[in-house]
Amino acid sequence: MPHTPAHEADSHDHAVSRPASPCTKVCRIDEITDRCRGCGRTLDEIARWGGMNAKERERIWQRLDRATFPAR
């Protein structure tokens, strides 16, 4: 798909519509996956979230989206 300004706006709008953080206030790390049972992030991702730029956060959001809604 060609890169167009409209496509950029769609991508940006998707990111803007997200909450500030994936945190669900259910902070329990799964011993097998080493991910939070509430939000799905690793301890490193949780610790670094506040200092991440939008692109880094979006990458994590996309992984969380795939984990929550796998390809159908």
TrEMBL record:
Positions of region (Disordered): 1-21
Basic and acidic residues bias (residue ranges): 1-16
Pfam family membership, one: DUF1289
PANTHER family reported in the protein's UniProt record: DUF1289 DOMAIN-CONTAINING PROTEIN
Identification of the protein by name: DUF1289 domain-containing protein
Organism: Halomonas saccharevitans
